[in-house]
Amino acid sequence: MGNESSAPTSVPPSPPPAPLRTPAPRPPPGVSTASSGSAGHASVLESAGHASVNTEAPPESSEKPRGIPRLCSDDVSELMPKIQAATVRHHVPSNDMPTTVPAPQKQFFGVLGQRHVICLNGLPNNGKDFVAKELGWYLEFFHGARVEYFMVNEYFNPDGSREGNALALLEDLQSFLLQTGGKKAWQATPGTPGKPKERKPSGEEDSFFVRRAANTDSGRVAIVLPPPMRFLAALDDQKAKELWNSTFSSTNALDRDWIRKQLLESCPDAKLMFIEIDVTDPVLLSQHHAAAKPAERQRMDSLRTWFECSYTPLGRSASSESHLSFLRYKNFQDMETHSMHGYLRMRVAQFLSVLRPWKHTIYLSRHGESTYNVDKKLGGDPPLSPAGEVYARRLGEFAEKCIQENPRTGKKVAARLWTSSLQRTELTAAYIPHPDLVGTELEAHTHVMEDHLVWKQMRHRVYRNLDEIYAGTYDGMTEDEIKVIDARFGADREVDKLATRYPHGESYLDLITRLEPLVHELHSYEEPLLIISHQATLRVLRAYLMRDRSRPRDKCPSVDIPQHTVMKITWDGWNFAVTPSALEAKMKDKKKWPPLESERWTPKDALATLGDPERPIGHEEWFWLGPDPKRMGGDGQANL
Fold this sequence. Notes:
By secondary structure, the chain is an alpha/beta fold. It has 21 helices and 18 strands.
């Protein structure tokens, strides 16, 4: 290089940097290490499994530390990631006042700002339950919000007063909103572990903790739901009217203003918004009517006029309600917003803009077995193994017979295809046919088909968002090779696999963040969609689509996605609680999974279902295509 021949320049040496007061690095288990710094840094935590060095501890100072009082190390907020919480509890003696709450991460804490209250309203039997449950699960899964549902019918006392029922709900609402870090606001003070110190009316220390509890970004969202039609149908006409006209049903401007004033007085930091669902489309109305039970339809028909006359739409009363933040969603297509200030409110509007009640069908499939699976290597961009090549051919047959066609009618169905940008997913999709179809060849027209004279069947869309979780420095390495480099990494992931990030790579929280835009996209589709992706990516997608609040997102990294298996998930606006496949329990038994080659799906199975009734919506089905990937050495990416 040209610079190598130039004369050297004399540069005075820089002064050495000042030493940083940081905790000594943790050595691998069983290694005894002594620091050259202070005696406090020389001790190694026995509780972490390390040997300890006996050194003289620094003398205790009688002077109390100045500044804002801190929580003791045993009183760690549950908002903190588990690894960081363990670090705080076992901090080195030189750090007397450790940071108890780390810098917020969007994926873990959410960036929801203040507490929020969302009240849904509208005429009965128009999809409010569907909107509320889908919205709450979305905020929990992708934004880390703590969501609680408040059902107006659960606070209805027929013998009580209307105001008393409203105050009972308001009290529970306040209790939920005034919690932070898993503790109620009046309990967020230092004390004996398990016995929180009671709040005192005065005092510098108590005022700080009460103030912090009230102002901390808790990411809490309360969703208030009016009584569903099934509860109204169980009452006589008079009681049904009283229940539906409860204060928190927010059916008129006076009640909405009462809710605003009460929250402003009791929870001034909480943001209130109203969401009105308005359904006037004859097709949607008939679908809602058909989905209701006979008693519900009878009650709706008998009280329809009364419901319509007693309800005042948002912003349509003599008062413009300009002081309220609200969103009006008509026929799941048109949206009107007012005073929608703030991050969460706009995220809610964006999500609802793609939410549709029509039937959705999603097929999930891992790529065929790759050469890295055989070698038990993580990540990379390898091609398929011979077993993976066999699966790709069988998947092409499955897509043609079961996705591009309705096997129960034998008619063509418009369908879509997504893969990641890695070659093993594109090679897995290589045998899927892509014929051009005109509208007359299709079983039914979708909303998108109106803009297409010719439909390109399963047009291949490549999304980098669907790529496997990036292992960073450990990309292309085996688990044994990683243990040689970093013996603690595996233990850290066992503590908190969701948040642990590969060095220079990604964590599952990063993966959740980059999958969010695709979830918005698939919610807007009516056509069946096949997604060919990877173990970690499909763990996240399947966990979200199953909508199981008993298995939140922090559980998804531990759920295996079997190779050479297609998972079909369906839902609509009336059947959105998905029932898992019976084969999931079979997969957990290593003696029963994978099935025998003779039990795999074949094109004959598709022909056998011709003329059968359609499967119920809201269920998951698994299709084992084979071959058994274990015969090639096992799944090397099971621990991603």
